[in-house]
Design brief:
InterPro entries: NMT1/THI5 (IPR027939), SsuA/THI5 (IPR015168)
Oligomer: single chain
Radius of gyration: 22 Å
Number of helices: 14
Keywords: Signal
Protein name: SsuA/THI5-like domain-containing protein
Number of strands: 10
Strand content: 15-25%
Order of helices and strands: HEHHEHEHEEEHEHEHEEHHHHHH
Number of domains: 2
Shape: globular
CATH superfamily of the largest domain: Periplasmic binding protein-like II
Pfam families: NMT1
Length: 329
């Protein structure tokens, strides 16, 4: 009798253990190519934060915020990263069932890059100059607002759209007085300039008055409703990964290159160092990591609506956010 009871108990424990060890699958949606600016998700996987949360995470590639939002809305991915402005526009125009759950960049990454000692020293100096940009960057959407803030008519600059790989050479050779690029690429462009015997200066648009939230963790409403515990565990693990990246940037580099070996460690390290100030800054000190502060959120929508000619009344920005999953610590 004792042996039968013992066998039964061990069998039950075995089932329980097997259930406990079965990790919940989550599909994470990137909004662009892998890189140091996406370090937290690779840290989450490689450093074991996702595993310790009982999660088996698969990363889906992306080609822009719009595509990322579409995949989440369609249910092919569960949670991912995207520009919150793109999500606001998508909800206003299409009513997509996707919401922001954690702020990542509480400052926009958009900037002018110029050569030190050249004809452009401030954002106001771009008037009358030749500026090169990629055709696909979201920065182009906000450019008219930045120019308006400086009382510059868009026709007062010559805007050239070029392949992203050509922007650096155009700036170094003088074929453009400035280029539009993200602050996450500052090290890469600085290295190009150094090789040409020059020095790059970045003029962030956030310092020129374009204050808004940018890259954010966003999730399918269906995922949040049907698997709230999984969502909570993932968001908590992701936030821990963001904090780990700041405290251990070299280990974060290893995590990225371990998961994506084709990336060079120096490029990844530079991108991580360039990205961290968009996450940790005076806004973070005041409001906290991952927080969507209501006034800043409202200002973000005001800017997005103006940039994309959307009636601001079409959307209450608070409906774009679900704060109930943001970890408190």
């Amino acid at each position: 009798m004792f042996r039968r009871k013992l066998a039964s108990t061990l069998f039950t424990l075995g089932l329980f253990s097997g259930t406990a060890l079965a990790a919940d699958k989550v599909t994470f949606q990137l909004d662009w190519l892998p890189g140091g600016d996406k370090a937290p998700i690779y840290v989450c996987i490689h450093q074991g934060f996702c595993r310790d949360a009982g999660l088996d995470v698969t990363i889906a590639s992306g080609r822009g915020s719009t595509e990322a939002i579409s995949k989440l809305a369609a249910g092919s991915s569960d949670i991912g990263v995207s520009d919150i402005g793109a999500l606001m526009a998508a909800r206003a125009n299409e009513g997509v069932k996707v919401v922001g759950v954690l702020s990542v960049f509480n400052k926009g990454p958009h900037a002018f890059y110029v050569i030190k000692g050249g004809s452009i020293a401030t954002v106001a100096d771009v008037k009358g100059k030749t500026i090169a940009t990629s055709p696909f960057t979201s920065s182009n959407v906000y450019l008219p607002l930045v120019l308006k803030d400086q009382s510059i008519d868009p026709s007062a600059i010559k805007l050239i759209k070029a392949d992203p790989g050509a922007l650096g050479p155009m700036l170094m050779t003088g074929n453009a007085d400035g280029i539009i690029a993200w602050m996450t690429d500052f090290t890469r462009y600085s290295n190009q300039a150094r090789q040409a015997g020059k020095e790059i200066v970045a003029l962030p648009w956030s310092a020129a008055g374009l204050e808004l939230y940018s890259a954010s963790l966003i999730a399918s409403e269906d995922f949040l409703a049907k698997r709230p515990d999984v969502a909570k565990r993932f968001i908590d693990a992701y936030k821990k990964s963001v904090q780990f990246t700041r405290a251990n940037p070299d280990a974060a580099v290893t995590s990225v290159t371990s998961v994506v070996p084709e990336l060079g460690s120096e490029d990844v390290k530079g991108s991580i160092n360039d990205t961290l100030p968009l996450i940790f800054n005076e806004v973070t000190d005041q409001d906290g990591l991952g927080v969507f502060e209501p006034k800043r959120l409202t200002e973000t929508w005001r800017r997005v609506a103006a940039a994309q000619a959307i009636d601001p009344a079409k959307l209450d920005p608070e409906t774009v956010i679900n704060r109930s999953f943001i970890p408190t610590e």
